[in-house]
Amino acid sequence: MSKKVLVCGAGGFIGGHLVxxxxxxxxxxxxxxxxKDRDDWYQVxxxxxxxxxxxxxxxxCFAAMKDVDIVYNLAADxxxxxxxxxNKALCMLSVLINTHLLEAAxxxxxxxxxxxxxxxxxxxxxxxxxxxPGLKEADAYxxxxxxGYGWEKLFSxxxxxxxxxxxxxxxxxxxxxxxxxxxxxxEGGREKAPAAICRKVIDxxxxxxxxxxxxxxxxxxxxFMYVDDCTKGTTDILNSDILEPINLGxxxxxxxNQLVDIVEEIAGIxxxxxxxxxxxKGVRGRNSDxxxxxxxxxxxxxxxxxxxMEQTYRWIYDQICDxxxxxxxxxxAAGSGDALVS
Length: 342
Ligand code: NAD
Fold this sequence. Notes:
Elements: E1 5-8, H1 13-24, E2 30-34, E3 49-52, H2 58-64, E4 70-73, H3 81-86, H4 88-92, H5 95-108, E5 112-118, H6 149-167, E6 170-176, E7 179-180, H7 193-207, E8 211-215, E9 221-223, E10 225-226, H8 227-238, E11 246-248, E12 253-255, H9 256-267, E13 272-276, H10 291-297, H11 305-323
Parallel strand pairs: 1-2, 1-4, 2-3, 4-5, 5-6, 6-11, 7-10, 8-13
Antiparallel strand pairs: 9-12
Helix pairs in contact: 1-8, 2-5, 5-6, 7-9, 7-11, 9-11
The chain binds nicotinamide-adenine-dinucleotide.
């Protein structure tokens, strides 16, 4: 536990939780890096070193990597489907982060390097049926990933592979399937379905209006992994001998309508659903197939969607009440969507 750990994207949702999890695991030399001003980090932990650096720049990556043994690269320009469908170039520019970090890790002789990939690498043709039986790791090829964001993830996965094969860097790659939980974004345009739906239901509840806007017809399906399962799975994968990209997600697939049912039940409210059929909605059906991670690591998610959504709802509710004290919940950042992403 005396190793120096670098967490890139530590001001973001998963990165903030990962720093906390690593600390609980006994790591006390953690360097947390993000390009956002410190005031904008979702979580700031007193015990870690904080650097504000734009990791698209090579020099910044070399500075971040100084004396580092273990690297978690979670830094990326990303958001829900509304963001990634409208910002493909920005998403692809994240390739600079992983490329420069790998080069810096090679120079620094870092022992292990984790890369956060995504279910968006999977071939779109295998995701046209809402009753998706689950995407296996092999389903990423032949390549037809999500345009922009998914291509960048697939390319960076390959980059990790070739740095391992050619330069001996111990890279590990997880394909996250929709991660959710407290301390993430829930308004402003980058939020994903679980947080956006919580916000909209809270907005309706506090604002006293009885409707919710849903992107698409609500029959598109996804699975969602609670962030605590994600952080544990991430460190387990880093420490494993699994060389190829592996799914890290839940197999508890629901439609967006079912996700709204869950949040309505938590809130104790039933809303009129208004379907925005021309909104970005992503693929029709996506689920994780966990056969490989179950077999190789014995990993299973431990938190049900209902439990995790309850925690998420409570946290967002408190945030909204704090941010909009004069009852402003009805005015909560209108205009952002219930976008899906993996
Ligand atoms: P997030 O947006 O909350 O966190 C990403 C962080 O990276 C942000 O704080 C951002 O400021 C930082 N960042 C972006 N560009 C940077 C740069 N040039 N230099 C330094 N920092 C930079 O996202 P998240 O949900 O925590 O996702 C973490 C990782 O997991 C990302 O790589 C994402 O693509 C991947 N992922 C997330 C999900 C999900 O459902 N949340 C699903 C699949 C994959």
